[in-house]
Amino acid sequence: MKHFLKGTAVAVVILIILLVINVICNINGHELEPLTTGVSSAICAIIIYRGLIKNEKNKE
Fold first, then answer.
1. Angle at 8 between CA 38 and CA 42, to 5 degrees
2. What is the DSSP letter of 60?
3. Tens-place pLDDT, residues 2-60
4. Contact 53, 3 (CB under 8 A)
5. What are phi and psi of 29, to 5 degrees?
6. Which residues, including other chains, have CB under 8 Å from residue 58's CB and lie 6 or more apart?
7. Which long-range contacts (CB under 8 A, 24 or more apart) does 36-44 make?
Protein backbone atom coordinates (compact mmCIF):
# COMPACT_ATOMS: atom_id res chain seq x y z
CA MET A 1 0.00 0.00 0.00
CA LYS A 2 2.94 2.33 0.68
CA HIS A 3 4.16 1.97 -2.89
CA PHE A 4 0.73 2.82 -4.28
CA LEU A 5 0.51 5.96 -2.16
CA LYS A 6 4.02 7.04 -3.11
CA GLY A 7 3.26 6.48 -6.78
CA THR A 8 0.05 8.47 -6.48
CA ALA A 9 1.82 11.31 -4.71
CA VAL A 10 4.54 11.46 -7.36
CA ALA A 11 1.95 11.45 -10.16
CA VAL A 12 -0.05 14.25 -8.52
CA VAL A 13 3.06 16.41 -8.01
CA ILE A 14 4.17 15.90 -11.61
CA LEU A 15 0.69 16.78 -12.90
CA ILE A 16 0.56 19.96 -10.79
CA ILE A 17 3.98 21.03 -12.08
CA LEU A 18 2.89 20.26 -15.64
CA LEU A 19 -0.30 22.30 -15.14
CA VAL A 20 1.69 25.31 -13.93
CA ILE A 21 4.10 25.04 -16.87
CA ASN A 22 1.19 24.81 -19.33
CA VAL A 23 -0.53 27.87 -17.84
CA ILE A 24 2.67 29.92 -17.99
CA CYS A 25 3.34 28.87 -21.58
CA ASN A 26 -0.26 29.59 -22.65
CA ILE A 27 -0.14 33.05 -21.08
CA ASN A 28 3.01 33.78 -23.08
CA GLY A 29 1.44 32.45 -26.30
CA HIS A 30 3.41 29.20 -26.61
CA GLU A 31 1.63 25.98 -27.43
CA LEU A 32 3.21 22.83 -25.97
CA GLU A 33 3.18 19.55 -27.87
CA PRO A 34 0.90 17.18 -25.89
CA LEU A 35 2.68 13.97 -26.90
CA THR A 36 6.13 15.22 -25.94
CA THR A 37 4.86 16.77 -22.72
CA GLY A 38 3.04 13.59 -21.70
CA VAL A 39 5.97 11.31 -22.40
CA SER A 40 8.49 13.54 -20.62
CA SER A 41 6.25 13.91 -17.56
CA ALA A 42 5.72 10.14 -17.39
CA ILE A 43 9.47 9.49 -17.60
CA CYS A 44 10.12 12.06 -14.85
CA ALA A 45 7.48 10.43 -12.64
CA ILE A 46 9.02 6.99 -13.13
CA ILE A 47 12.51 8.25 -12.31
CA ILE A 48 11.33 10.02 -9.15
CA TYR A 49 9.30 6.99 -8.05
CA ARG A 50 12.22 4.62 -8.57
CA GLY A 51 14.43 6.97 -6.55
CA LEU A 52 11.97 6.92 -3.66
CA ILE A 53 11.69 3.14 -3.74
CA LYS A 54 15.47 2.74 -3.97
CA ASN A 55 15.96 4.88 -0.85
CA GLU A 56 13.38 2.80 1.01
CA LYS A 57 15.09 -0.49 0.05
CA ASN A 58 18.48 0.83 1.18
CA LYS A 59 17.10 1.64 4.65
CA GLU A 60 15.85 -1.94 5.17
1. 20
2. -
3. 788 888 888 888 989 999 999 999 999 988 888 888 898 889 888 888 888 887 766 66
4. yes
5. 90, 15
6. none
7. 41/14, 41/15, 41/17, 44/14
Q: How far apart are the first and last CA of the chain?
A: 17
Which of 45, 44, 59, 39 has its CA nearest to residue 7?
45
Task: State the Cα–Cα distance between residues 47 and 2, nearest whole angstrom.
Answer: 17
* Cα 54 to Cα 50: distance, rounded to the nearest angstrom: 6
Does residue 54 contact residue 16 with C-beta atoms inside 8 Å? no
CB 18 within 8 A of CB 37: yes
